[in-house]
Amino acid sequence: MIELTGWEPLGLSVDWAAIEGELGVPLPADYKELYEAFGGGVFSDSVYFLGRDEGVSFDLLRQWRACLSVDRDGTYGSVSAVDPYAVYAPGGKGLVEWGSTEWADEYCWLIDAERPGEYPVLARAHDVGGWHRYDMSTSEFLYRVLADADFLPFGVAQYALTPSFEAGSGGGV
Questions:
Q1: Which of 13, 65, 112, 158 is the most buried (most CB within 10 A)?
Q2: 162 belongs to a structural domain
Q3: Is the pLDDT confidence value at 143 over 80?
Q4: What SS3 string covers 74-114?
Q5: Could you give the 3-state DSSP secondary structure of residue 167?
Q6: Domain of 106?
Q7: Are 161 and 46 in contact (CB under 8 A)?
Q8: What b/e string do you get for 35-62 counting C-beta neighbours within 10 Å, with b at 16 or more?
Q9: Rounded to an integer, what distance in angstroms lies between the CA atom of residue 122 and that of residue 131?
């Protein structure tokens, strides 16, 4: 990803124990490496990557807390925004969003507290029904999205976007 985007790694220091303690599961090692190198921000002007930027729009925990709150709110019945899944709750099984696009595509991990270390990527395109499962790492999925024009329906390379990265408003710090 660094070579693809020409990015100079930030080398961020992150308290992963605190983040993983709140989630109740470890996060994928390659995701942590990506975040430490890039921080939260936008790839190729269209793919949003969530990290740990407290107080800004690219914060994975803030996004997860909001989704979990909405998913647990019984005001509208038992329908989930990530149906047929649920938003991950500590100790359970469900989705944690780590990325999205300007076209409302969603990129999540399917996390099962009873199977730590397994993080299939589930992705949903705004105009293509249903979730697609990818048994690959976060970084491989993101690389394919950015560089593989044939990675349909998620590849943004088909739009001839230059692989790039722009740090979020917190600059990843």
A1: 112
A2: no
A3: yes
A4: HHHCCCCCCCCCCECCCCCEEEEEEEEECCCCEEEEEEECC
A5: strand
A6: 2-151
A7: yes
A8: bbbbbbbbbbebbbbbbbbeebebbbbb
A9: 6
* Average pLDDT value for residue range 76-91: 81
Is it true that the peptide bond before 120 is cis, omega within 30 degrees of 0? no
The two three-digit tokens of residue 99, written as one number = 């990325």
Measured distance CA(133)–CA(118) in Å, rounded: 13
Token pair recorded at residue 110: 């399917």
Average pLDDT rounded to a whole number, residues 83-88: 91
Read off the CATH number of the domain in which 100 is found.
Answer: 3.40.1580
Residue 130 counted as domain residue: yes
Question: Is the pLDDT score of 96 beyond 90?
Answer: yes
Q: With respect to residue 68, please indicate whether it lies within any of the assigned structural domains.
A: yes
Instruction: Taking the CA atoms of 157, 159, 100 and 48 in sequence, report the sign of the dihedral they define.
Output: positive
Total tally of structural domains belonging to the chain: 1
